[in-house]
Amino acid sequence: MERWIGSYRLSDDRALLRRDAICTLVQGSYWGCRRTRETIEASLEHSLCYGAYLGEEQVAFARVVTDRAVMFWLADVLVCPSQRGRGLGKGLVELVLDTPVLRGLTGLLATRDAPGLYARYGFVRDTEGRFMRRTPPEETPSP
């Protein structure tokens, strides 16, 4: 799938992924700063991946983990700081939600700083306290 926001190409084409840019984005986030490059690479191989591109440069990224039957986990929605405010995060979320294999599935995510972005697409905070998370032992970031 593909769509455009002005000069930005949004796509789920894995051949377009720029792994160096993705690693920089993920390792620059508060939740991914301890991930090694090897861990990030493995997560790409086992996920649906989406990117936003300005020319050949990848400027945003989103990743989805799914069983393709019951649920999906929307993860790592990231936009380069210099490209924020252009609708790329919204565009990537919309592209994810329009993915045929994900339609009708329960979507999950975690966010500390962007609940308003996801609320507009029907994500609701868990007020019952049933959302639980297990954090693995710390990883050492790659140099």
Brief summary:
With 143 residues, the protein is α+β, with helices and mostly antiparallel strands. Helix content is 23%, strand content 26%. It is built from four helices and six strands; from the N terminus they run ββααβββαβα.
Description of the structure:
The chain has 143 residues and is an alpha+beta fold. The protein is built from 4 helices and 6 strands, in the order E-E-H-H-E-E-E-H-E-H. Strands 1-2-3-4-5-6 form a 6-stranded mixed sheet, with helices on both faces. Strand 1 and strand 2 form a beta hairpin. The longest helix is centred in the middle third of the chain and has 10 residues, at 88-97. It is globular, with a radius of gyration of 15 Å. The relative contact order is 0.18. The mean pLDDT is 89.
How are the SSEs ordered, and which strands pair?
Elements: E1 2-5, E2 8-11, H1 19-27, H2 37-45, E3 48-54, E4 57-66, E5 71-79, H3 88-97, E6 106-108, H4 115-119
Parallel strand pairs: 5-6
Antiparallel strand pairs: 1-2, 2-3, 3-4, 4-5
